[in-house]
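Annual report, structural modelling task.

Input specification for the adenosine-5'-diphosphate complex:
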Amino acid sequence: MRHKNFRRIINPPIFLKKTWTRVSFVLIMHDSMIEMVHVVKTYPSQISALSDITLEISSGEFTFVVGPSGSGKSTLLRILCGAEKPTGGEVVVDGVQITHPGFRKIHQLRRRMGIVSQDFKLLRDRTVNENVAFALEVTGHTRREAKSKASDILRRIGLEEREDAPILALSAGEQQRAAIARAVVNSPSLILADEPTGNLDAKTTLDVMGIFSDLNHQGATIVFATQFTGLIKRFPYRVIHILDGQVSNGKKVDTDEVREVKAGG
Ligand code: ADP
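The model returned the following structure:
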């Protein structure tokens, strides 16, 4: 974790000084996509949603966050995308300490994120293609480019025949897929998905998992919150269990030290 590595940088054995500093720096800069240290969230109603979360997710990792309804999954994801501020603790996303009191650039960071929330947040008065293309237009693509890229991703997600339909004409499962298409059309380096397959039938769930797996193979870090333990049995990804706002296995086995000693020696 960051604070431990800092200590190593400040006080390395003299004969390894240069190598340790360089190696530690590389690990800090490239290994972690997400670090949460002693994160607490208490809502104004005094409901404790997260009581003490310390976890680390590496760049390029696919991680399920699994726990029953009310265990804190959505709160955790909302903190990671800056939609909610924690009451205490430190959060670093893609090298940026978003809990720093002076941090104001969440919108820049969000451009590198794809967010699938439970309430879809689709634009009700637009077509399916326009909803997806909108995510590209706001990041500077021309309308024509955006429309064409939106068509590509809608084809991949099996909605090509619905792309000109008004979004409200779609079923809940189709809207869910449109929301996923919109979240991933920018090829984000971090995808935060809150129960993205909750409304989908078994076949569409597998299609959507295939899309997330492809994006992960292309390098995206994926945090996938779900209460359905069936998924974690089927897919061989890391699982962080959350219960009553606490995780039991958020820290990874610390192989850094072994790698550092090897590299340094
Ligand atoms: P999950 O996503 O696992 O269902 P949540 O993060 O939504 O869990 O909720 C965790 C706890 O925080 C629950 O007790 C929930 O009622 C409470 N909670 C969530 N959002 C709010 C909110 N905006 N205001 C007050 N309490 C909330």
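Residues 202-217 form the longest helix (16 residues).
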